[in-house]
Every structure is written in structure tokens, then in C-alpha cells.
Amino acid sequence: MSKKIVCMCIVACCVVFSLAAQQTGGQTEPERTRTIEELYLSQNLELRLIRDQAASADWEDRSMAIQNLRAMQNEGRLTESNSGAMIILEEMAKPIEQGGNTRNFNIIRREAVNLLGDVGGKRSKQILMEVLNLDRDSLVRAEAVYALGKIGIDERGEVLTQIMDTLHSENVKPTPNDNFAYAVLLAIEKLAKSSGGLKAVDQLGPLNELLRCNYKQEVKRKCKEVIYVLLQQ
Question: What pTM does this model have?
Fold first, then answer.
């Protein structure tokens, strides 16, 4: 009886080793470990389509990508926890490296920045601060600064500091951009309401400076309103 048991065990072991050999025999080298982004996008057909549209050299395809992302946001499916969509949106907000920074492409980038402001959250805030700091297109920068005010997250005051520094850089130009300055003023107004006002009175410096610079009267009037609001808080 014991001999039969031993024989059965030997046969079972042979079968197990044979199956293991069949499963591993065809693998000559290990697969490359995919990133979280690749794994997420590979499992989501909708995002794969949007990613391809966003990467296109055709501005109409990129416009369609923005429309699809906007539809997701309207349906409540585009939040900062949606890592795949946020990666696409971040890339769409950046300048195009190889000769694609035409007016149409910059309009799409401005729409991407606007959408980041609507999505909100800390990740959107960081992306927008990078756009404000590095971008050269005045319309995109104006949209970025306004979006930062709309998000309203500034616990340590770094957003307001960067906005004020950016305003100073605009003030010293021979012909400063009125649209950008007005967007800055609206953003400061929104941030002041959400974060409890200025952290220090010396932050008013760029605003007082604006009143002496070459801006339209409409911008200067808005600046006086913002200064008054800030001093009341």
C-alpha cells in the first residue's frame, strides 16, 4: 500500500513540474514595469482616446480633447483624484515645444488652464503656479492667475506672493498688459476673501506701484477698489 502512495506522489510531482515548465518556458525576458499612468490609461478607453487627441499636432483634435475633458468635469468625473485625466490636462496647459504655439494652440491652452481652475484642488494649484511662472503668453498667464484666485487655496501665502511678484514684473514694463493686470486684481480679490486677507501690509507694494504705471484708468480704478477691500480685512 505504501509503495502505491509513493508512486502516486512521484507522478503528481512530475505533472506539477511539467506545468510549471510550460508556463515559464516561453518567457525569455521579464516584461518592462509599466508606470501607474500607463496602467490607468490602458484600462480606460475614453482616456486613451482623449490622450491621443491631446497629443495630436492638429489643433482641432486638441480642441476636441478639451471638449471631452470639459464634459467629464460637467458630469463630475474629472476631479484631482482622476490621475489619468489630470496628467492629460497638465500636458495640455504647457507650451508646445516644436513650433505649435500659434494663436489657435494658445487658445486651447488657455481653455485647459481655465478647466484646471474649475477642477480645483492642490494639484491644479501647483500646475497653475508653474504656468504663471514659466509661460510667456499673456492670455494664458492671465487665465492662470484668475484660476488661482478661483481655486482660493493659499494656506502659507505662497500663491499671493507669486501673484504680487508677477504683478511687479508687469508693472515695470514700458507697456504693461492691461488684461493681465486686471486678471491679477480679480485673483487677489478672490484670494483675500478665501484666505482672510493680506499676511502683511507690505504686500500692498505692487498694488500701489500699479497706480503709478502706464495702465488704463479702468485698471487703476479696480486697483483702488482692491486696496480698499484688503485694508478693511
Answer: 0.78
